[in-house]
Amino acid sequence: MKANSSLERKLSFKEQFIKEIPMHIMLIPAVILTLIYSYGPMVGIVMAFQDFQPYLGFSKSSWVGLDNFKYIFNLPDFGQILYNTFLISVWKVILGLIVPLVLALLLNEVRKVLFSRVIQTSVFLPYFLSWAVLGGVIFELFSLNGPINSILGFFHIDPIMFMGSNGWFRSIIIGSDVWKGMGYNMIIFLAAIVGINPSLYEAAEVDGANRWKQTIHITLPGMLPMIILLTTLSIGGILNAGFDQILILYNPTVYQGADVIDTFVYRLGLFDQQYSAAAAIGLFKSVISLGLVGLSYYLAYKFTDYRIF
Amino acid sequence: MFYKKTRGQKIFDVTNMCFLIFVTLLGVLPFVHLLAVSLSSNSAAVAGEVFFLPVDFTTASYQFLAENSDFFISLWITVKRVVLGTIINLFLVIITAYPLSRKNKEFRFRTIYVWFFAITMFFGGGLIPTYMVVKETGLLDTIWALILPGALNVFYMVMLLNFFRNIPKDLDEAAIIDGAGHWTLLFKIYLPISLPAIATILLFIVVGHWNSWFDGILYMNSPENYPLQSYLSTLITSINVQAISVEDLSKLQEMGSKTLRTAQIFMGILPVLLVYPFLQKYFIKGITIGSVKE
Fold first, then answer.
1. Distance CA A39, CA B93 (A)
2. How close is the nearest chain A Cα to the Cα of B237, in Å?
3. Cβ–Cβ of B34/A137 closer than 8 Å?
4. Is there a contact between B122 and B114 (Cβ–Cβ < 8 Å)?
5. So what's the ipTM on this one?
6. Segment B217-229, tens digit of pLDDT
7. What SS3 state is found at A4?
8. What pTM, to 2 d.p., does this model score?
9. Which of B156, B285, B291, B282 has its CA nearest to residue A223?
10. In chain B, how long is the greatest CA-to-CA distance?
C-alpha cells in the first residue's frame, strides 16, 4: 500500500520532465528532418505571393500580392487542366472501387483454395511494380504494332494511335491505374467479407436464401462500412490524379487531354522556370486538398468511426 | 453447406471461373509478352509478330545488357539506396512511434508532437520549394537526396504507433518495476512483440525505395547517378538518351532497340517477380492490419 502510494505520488513538472527526456531524445532526429524537409518547403510557399527571382532569394524578391493567382486563373489551359484532373480522378475512384468489389465478390464464390490463391497472386502483381516499368509494359502493349493493335487487325480494324490520341490516352491512364490497384483493394474487400459473421449465412440458408440473395442481403451490407470508408478516404486525394503515372506515359500530343495539376506544375516550374506561378498553383492545390482531406476524414469518422490516431 | 447445386448455380460457377481466369491472365500476360519480345529477334518484335512466345529466339539483348555497364551501375545505386534508406526509415519509424504511443499522462508533449508530424501528411510545400530545400542542403546528386527528404514516413509511423498501443500495459509495468528505462522497454519488450507489424512495414519500405523513380530524375543532375527505376524511365520516355560508344552503337543497331528496351524493363521487374510470391502473404497480412478495424 505504502509502495503503491509513493509510486503514484504526483511528480513536479521538473521531475516528470526528467522522466520524459529519453522520449524527447527519441523524437529529435525525426523532428529535425521533418523541420528541414517538410516544414522548410512550406516557407517556400511565400514565393506564390512574390515575383520570385532565384538570384535575389526570398528576402529581396518583390511582393506582388495575389497577382500570381490572377495570372494562373487566367491561363487559357487552366480550366482544361482542372477539368482533366477532376475527370481522371473521379473515374479512377469510381472504377477503382467497383472493379475490386466485383472481383472480391466473385472470388468469394470460388471454393477452391488453390485457384483462389493463384488469382489473388496474379491480380496483386502489378501493384508491386513502379510506374517506370509498368509504363514500359503499357507502351509495349499499346504501340502501333503492339499486340493490342495486332488483335484489332485480326478483326480488320485499322491500328489505333493509343498513346497519341487524347481520348484513348485518358482511358488508358484510368484503365491502367485500376489494373495496377485492383489487387490491393480486392484484398481489403476480401478481408471485410471474411469478417462477416458466418452464422448469418447459415440462418439465411435455413430460410431458403440462395447465394445471390445471400450476397445482396448479407455480404454487401456487411461490407458497407469498408466501402464507405474507402470512398470517403479517396475524396481527400481527388486532386492527385496520378503524377508518376501520367508523367511517364504522356507526350506533347496529349497534353490537352492528360495534363493534370501536378504535371502542369512540374512543367511550368522546372522547364519554364516560372517558379512563382508554379508555387501559386501548388498552393491552390494544397489548400483545396487539405480541405478535402479534412472533409473526408470527418465523413469517415462520422460514418464508420474510423480515426487515424 | 452440402446442399445440392442447382443447374443455375453450376452455370454460374463455370462462367465465374472463366471470368476470373480471364482476369488472372490480365495480371500476368502483359509480363509474359514483355519477356517474349525481349527474347525475340528485333525484326519480329518491330513487325508485331510476337505475342506470348518468342519469335526467332535469341538472347542477344541479355548478352548485350550483361556487357553494358550502365544497367548494373544504376542497379548498384538502387541496392545502396534500398539498404541505406530502409535502415534509416525503419529506425526512425520505430523510435518515433514509441514515444507517441504512450499515454498523454506519461508523455505530456505527445499531442504537440503528433500534430507536428500529422500536418506533414496533409500539407506540403509542393514540388518546387522541396526541390530548392534539397538543393540548399547540398544533397543534389548524392544518394541522400533520395533518402533524407522522405526519411520519416508518417503513415507507417501511425500504423506502428497503433500496434504499440495494443500491447498489454501489464508487460511494461512489470518491466518498469524491474528497472527498465524507455530504451530497454522499446528494444527488449516492444520490438520483439511487434515483429509481424515491423516486417510488414519493412517490406513496404523496401518496395517503396526499389520502385521510386521520379526523385532520381528530379534530384540527380547526371544520369550516371540514376537509380535503376529512373534509368529505366529514361529508356521508356526517350529512346536514345545515353551516349553510347560507336562499337556498342553498331551492335545495338544490329540488335535493335525494341528488344533491348524490353530486356532492360524485364530485368527491372525480375527481382520483384522472384521474391514476390514469398512476400505476398505478408503484404496481405499487413494490408489487413493497417486497414481493417472492428
1. 18
2. 6
3. yes
4. no
5. 0.84
6. 999 988 888 999 9
7. helix
8. 0.86
9. B291
10. 75
